[in-house]
Structures are given as structure tokens and as C-alpha cells.
Amino acid sequence: MTITKHYKNLKLVVEDSLLKSIYQSSCGHYPKEYGGFLIGKYSDDFKTLYIEQSITAEVFKSSRIEFTRESNYLKSEFKKLFIDKRLYYIGEWHTHPDGEAWYSSTDLSAMINIKKDQGVSISNPILLILSITNDSLKDFNFFVLNNNRLELYE
User: What whole-number distance in Å separates Cα of residue 125 and Cα of residue 148?
Assistant: First the structure.
């Protein structure tokens, strides 16, 4: 099943199976936060964003209320994805165990820092937050960074 969300005149498209896969990859880390990277592409007119896959973080620090990942070790993998499939880094995802699928001030700061990073060539990164419990995916929300604010895809 395909999930479609909207923000102004932009459309975000993701397969339900990808969300389930992201949730399943985070179950082993519960009750700590866990996360990774969103990989995708835009349509030729830049009005539709297709989230095609995710990469889980391998180097990270995690607690019940915080997730910090490293990404430098993935530069060659990101380059290979672009060369082979024309897919590229479009944002981040992480879980909020037993919490809401809403961003914190820490999440906002992290996304602003990603936008400022010279090694990242994306001006409006996406953030996916998944609210999980010990046995289910409770909720999820996609946000886009716009004018240093995270705005909800609905």
C-alpha cells in the first residue's frame, strides 16, 4: 500500500512496507531511540518526493530520550546509491519510544545543522518520527524543514 502525504503543493510518497521495515529495524533497540537515513528522489518537476529506502545507523549513541548518529562512514554508500540508482539522501528518521510522533527542540536543531552542513546538498531535509511501543508502531509523522521550521506533511 502506498502512503501519500501533502505539504503545500508538495507530495510525499512512501510504501507502507518501508515504514514497517523501519519500525522492525528499531524494535531491537526499544526502549531506546533509534534511527537512520531516508533515501529517495524527487520527480522531474520537484513536486513529488519518493522515499525509496532507509539506511539504519550503525555508529550512534542512544538513550530513552535521545539519538545521535554518525554519518561520515556512509559517504561512499550515499555516492554509490546516487550513481547506481539516482537515489540520494533526503533526510532522517528516528523513534520516540512510548512518546509522541512529534519533534523536539533537539530534533529541530539537528535538522537545521544538517541543512547548514557543507557536505549535504539538500535545503529542505525530511524528518520522520515514529512513535513506538514495545509491541507496535503507534503513529508516525513526516516533517520538512522550511525557513528553519519543521512543518508537517499531512
Answer: 11
- At which residue does the C-alpha cell 509523522 appear? 141
Domain 2-152 indexed as CATH 3.40.190.290: no
Say how far apart CA 105 and CA 30 lie, in whole Å.
22
pLDDT digits (tens, 9 = 90+) for 75-131: 788 889 999 999 999 999 999 999 999 999 999 999 999 898 877 778 899 999 999
Q: What does pTM read for this prediction?
A: 0.94
- DSSP H or E segment with residue 23: helix 16-27
Contact 63, 29 (CB under 8 A): no
- Answer whether 99's CB lies under 8 Å from 130's CB: no
User: Residue 152, CB half-sphere, CA atoms under 13 Å: how many?
Assistant: 6
Partners of 62 in beta bridges: 67
| Cis peptide, bond prior to residue 31, ω within 30 of zero | yes
Q: How far apart are CA 101 and CA 93, in angstroms?
A: 11
Grid coordinates in use for 27?
A: 524494535
Place of cell 557543507: 118
Q: Which residues contact 6 (CB under 8 A, 6 or more apart)?
A: 12, 153, 154
